[in-house]
Amino acid sequence: MHPNLALHLHKKECGELIQQLHKCHQDNKLKKFFGGCNDLRRSLDRCLQKEYKENRTKNYLESLERKKRAEEKIERDSRPRI
Questions:
Q1: How many CB atoms lie under 10 A from the CB of residue 39?
Q2: Residues 22-52: pLDDT tens digits?
Q3: Residue 37: closest CA among 20, 51, 12
Q4: Which among 12, 41, 55, 59 is most buried, taking Cβ atoms within 10 Å?
């Protein structure tokens, strides 16, 4: 199972594969049930997996930055004022 295949949600390279897979499904109504589009699907799965890993890494690094800024703010606000 793969995520939503709306083109605006994915990078250009995955978007092209999504369009090719949809075209394959439209052009081969019966073959799609018997593996006629499996090569495209596998390529799309690899692309989506790569995209997912990149997004996960980017989000993790952003969370570390947010955590660091929050800790700095807590440290700054907890200092005694004279």
A1: 11
A2: 999 899 888 878 888 999 999 999 999 999 9
A3: 20
A4: 41
- 61/78: higher pLDDT: 61
Measured between alpha carbons, how far is residue 44 from residues 3, 64, 81 in Å? Answer: 11, 30, 58
| Residue 5 domain-assigned (yes or no) | no
pTM higher than the cut 0.90: no
Which residue, 78, 58, 81, is CA-closest to 70?
A: 78
The number of domains in the chain is: 1
DSSP, collapsed to helix, strand or coil, labels residue 44 as helix
Q: What pLDDT was estimated at residue 2?
A: 67
Range of the domain at 65: 11-78
> Does 3 fall in a domain?
no
The answer to whether residue 36 sits within a structural domain is yes
